[in-house]
Amino acid sequence: MRARDKASVSALRATLAALDNAEAVPVDEAEVRGPALEQSPVGAGATEAVRRELSECDVVDVVRAEITERLDVTAQLTAPAHADRAAQLRAEAAVLLRFLDGPGTV
User: Which of 56, 57, 77, 106 lies 20 to 30 angstroms, CA to CA, from 15?
Assistant: First the structure.
């Protein structure tokens, strides 16, 4: 990343955000409303929820989904005006593919 490789930085940031979203705990509508104000928990961290832990297989699935998303968008960008964007998305997909093909599979 120090070399300012924009494709790598963009792909990794987006994938880290996708992994962060995958770890989020789903919120139920009843939980959003919550109990009455006087029954609310008090104190720092009292309302924090434990995040979901992703298995290695889950992480690989998220990375594959990010690759697929980039390649699908690239296939839709057929106009010459979008050639730069399509090339950038292909480069990002290649960066992510290196993580799946590399030692340890992510």
Answer: 77
- pLDDT per residue as tens digits for the range 80-89: 999 999 999 9
Q: CA 71 → CA 9, 38, 51, 59, 105, distances in Å?
A: 17, 51, 30, 19, 20
The pLDDT value given to residue 26: 76
Give the Cα-Cα-Cα angle 56, 62, 65 (nearest 5 degrees).
140
Which value, in Å, is the radius of gyration of the alpha carbons in the chain?
19
Q: What is the pLDDT of residues 5-46, one digit of tens each?
A: 899 999 999 999 999 999 988 766 545 556 666 666 666 666
